[in-house]
């Protein structure tokens, strides 16, 4: 029996819908630019079966992948589950076999022995979706990526990279170098539960692994995202902790610990484990990065950064919580690591006082290069919001996109509407040769008044002008983690 009544998150706008769908020629308001030829793909977390533990993280829900396919001003929509090992086992059993987020010791006894030995079999492919080497794949950081058919979104299976990718895990935030076409990817907890091994790989544009570097983190923590420059790779380590003892005690994988320091590992591209240098400083929370660059002997990183625990479902153990003086929320911040200095500290600047969300995007053609603009979402309290309709989004409504100019010329904003909450924006260039920032911001808005999801399209250089167009779905989409734009030539779209 499927019963979501014990799950406090299964209410209101993000109550599980659990169906696969196809909508031909979606309803549109405004006019979709004909130059938008490609697809917006996104992945949401959605429970196929209710969680075994009501306090579990939504990050432990199944992956539901959606594709909005654009051509000649029209849009077709497809949504399908990622058929992971776990999804198939649950469906066969007709119940949730898997326990807490990344803790196989809490799994059903019928599978526990195998999932403790091979925790990567629990992965859900629910965090990000990307294309590289001619393949489309969905990812979660506790196991291998799953390849999907780009036409139908049917699951092809876990990716192996010809056996040359040896980490048990694969990050949900690989970086693709726009100059070389290489993908820099990694796995942490690479050799098993609570291991501090990190394996970092370079994959060439044909999808072949060309290098592997193995090193150890200063402590075992969430390494959700990295940043690359043309010369270096920056690896942030911050704030969370885990251990085998913790997992065997039946606790959720992560605990926040405000007593831990932040580290930035700086590894030269093409370097080896002995070349990595760790810079240390006060605790920060950096789930995502914007971008990084190397200027002479300095490695400069920009990111949406906070100073407190971002995830209430990963609480601190007694005595390790945030002090009352901690600064809440995220800001656009810049970090500088000086390779010429004998100091292993880093410097920090807050570039804008405006509080923002935890997501950070740029024009992806500038990954590893000197970019001028960053994009994120934020809540503007001065904009009207229909609080009566907020439901289980009360206090969490994100009503605006923002573009920040790193050259110091301010921010510009897009407002989604007084009953709308926005997911992560994605930048789409107007054409392959457009200058940085010339293009569109695309993302999903939850329309709380109509209980439906809408894909919004705004001109990234004229955000205040509002909608260019919207694609209207006649139902709700699950809570998005990440999405990306796939240019038409990327997967042979016509
Ligand atoms: Fe992420």
Describe the 3D structure.
It is built from 3 helices and 32 strands. The chain is 4% helix and 36% strand. It has 494 residues and is mainly beta. The N and C termini lie far apart (44 Å). It is globular. It has helices spanning 85-93, 112-117, 244-248; strands spanning 21-23, 27-30, 38-46, 62-71, 74-81, 128-132, 135-139, 146-148, 155-158, 175-176, 183-188, 197-203, 209-216, 227-228, 232-237, 240-241, 255-256, 262-268, 277-281, 291-295, 298-305, 331-338, 347-350, 373-378, 400-405, 411-415, 420-422, 426-429, 439-447, 452-459, 467-472, 479-487. The site of fe (ii) ion has 7 residues, from loops.
Describe the global form: globular
Helix content: under 10%
The biggest beta sheet reads: 6 strands, antiparallel
Rg over C-alpha atoms, rounded to the nearest angstrom = 21 Å
Brief summary:
The chain has 494 residues and is mostly beta strands.
Features:
4% helix, five-stranded antiparallel beta sheet, 32 strands, six-stranded antiparallel beta sheet, binds fe (ii) ion, mainly beta, 494 residues
Write the layout of secondary structure elements.
Elements: E1 21-23, E2 27-30, E3 38-46, E4 62-71, E5 74-81, H1 85-93, H2 112-117, E6 128-132, E7 135-139, E8 146-148, E9 155-158, E10 175-176, E11 183-188, E12 197-203, E13 209-216, E14 227-228, E15 232-237, E16 240-241, H3 244-248, E17 255-256, E18 262-268, E19 277-281, E20 291-295, E21 298-305, E22 331-338, E23 347-350, E24 373-378, E25 400-405, E26 411-415, E27 420-422, E28 426-429, E29 439-447, E30 452-459, E31 467-472, E32 479-487
Antiparallel strand pairs: 1-5, 2-31, 3-4, 3-32, 4-5, 6-7, 7-8, 8-9, 10-11, 11-12, 12-13, 14-15, 15-18, 16-17, 18-19, 20-21, 21-22, 22-23, 24-25, 25-26, 27-29, 28-29, 29-30, 30-31
Bound molecules: fe (ii) ion.
Fe (ii) ion binds at residues 127, 172-173, 224-225, 288, 482.
């Amino acid at each position: 029996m499927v019963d979501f009544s014990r799950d406090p998150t299964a209410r209101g706008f993000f109550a599980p819908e659990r169906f696969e769908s196809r909508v031909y020629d979606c309803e549109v308001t405004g006019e979709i630019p004909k130059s938008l030829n490609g697809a917006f793909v996104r992945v949401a977390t959605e429970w196929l079966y209710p969680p075994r533990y009501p306090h579990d993280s939504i990050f432990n829900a199944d992956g539901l992948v959606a594709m909005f396919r654009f051509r000649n001003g029209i849009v077709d929509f497809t949504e399908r589950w990622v058929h992971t090992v776990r999804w198939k086992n649950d469906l066969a059993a007709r119940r949730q076999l898997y326990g807490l987020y990344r803790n196989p010791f809490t799994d059903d006894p019928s599978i526990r022995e195998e999932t403790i030995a091979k925790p990567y079999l629990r992965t859900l492919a629910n965090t990000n979706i990307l294309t590289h080497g001619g393949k489309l794949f969905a990812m979660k950081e506790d196991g291998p990526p799953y390849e999907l058919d780009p036409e139908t979104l049917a699951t092809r299976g876990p990716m192996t990279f010809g056996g040359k990718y040896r980490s048990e895990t694969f990050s949900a935030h690989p970086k693709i170098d726009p100059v070389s076409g290489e993908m820099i990817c990694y796995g942490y907890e690479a050799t098993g539960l609570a291991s501090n091994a990190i394996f970092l790989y370079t994959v060439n544009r044909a999808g072949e692994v060309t290098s592997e570097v193995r090193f150890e983190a200063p402590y075992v923590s969430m390494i959700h995202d990295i940043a690359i420059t043309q010369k270096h790779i920056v690896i942030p380590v911050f704030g969370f902790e885990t251990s085998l003892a913790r997992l065997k005690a039946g606790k959720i994988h992560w605990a926040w610990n405000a007593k831990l320091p932040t580290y930035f590992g700086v590894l030269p591209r093409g370097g080896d484990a002995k070349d990595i240098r760790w810079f240390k400083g006060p605790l920060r929370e950096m789930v995502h990065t914007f971008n990084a660059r190397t200027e002479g002997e300095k490695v400069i990183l920009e990111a949406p950064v906070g100073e407190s625990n971002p995830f209430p479902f990963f609480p601190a153990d007694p005595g390790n919580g945030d002090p009352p003086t901690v600064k809440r929320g995220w800001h656009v911040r810049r970090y500088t690591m000086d390779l010429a200095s004998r100091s292993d500290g880093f410097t920090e600047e807050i570039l804008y006082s405006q509080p923002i969300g935890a997501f950070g995007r740029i024009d992806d053609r500038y990954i590893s290069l000197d970019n001028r603009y960053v994009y994120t979402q934020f809540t503007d309290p001065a904009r009207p919001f229909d609080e009566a309709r907020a439901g289980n989004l009360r206090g969490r409504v994100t009503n605006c996109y923002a573009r920040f100019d790193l050259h110091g010329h301010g921010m510009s904003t897009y407002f989604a509407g007084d009953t709308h909450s926005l997911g992560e924006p994605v930048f789409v260039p107007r054409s392959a040769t457009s200058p940085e920032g010339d293009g569109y911001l695309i993302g999903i808005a939850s329309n709380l008044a109509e209980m439906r999801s809408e894909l919004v399209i705004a001109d990234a250089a004229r955000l205040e002008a509002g909608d260019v167009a919207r694609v209207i779905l006649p139902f709700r989409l699950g809570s998005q983690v990440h999405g990306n734009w796939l240019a038409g030539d990327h997967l042979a779209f016509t």
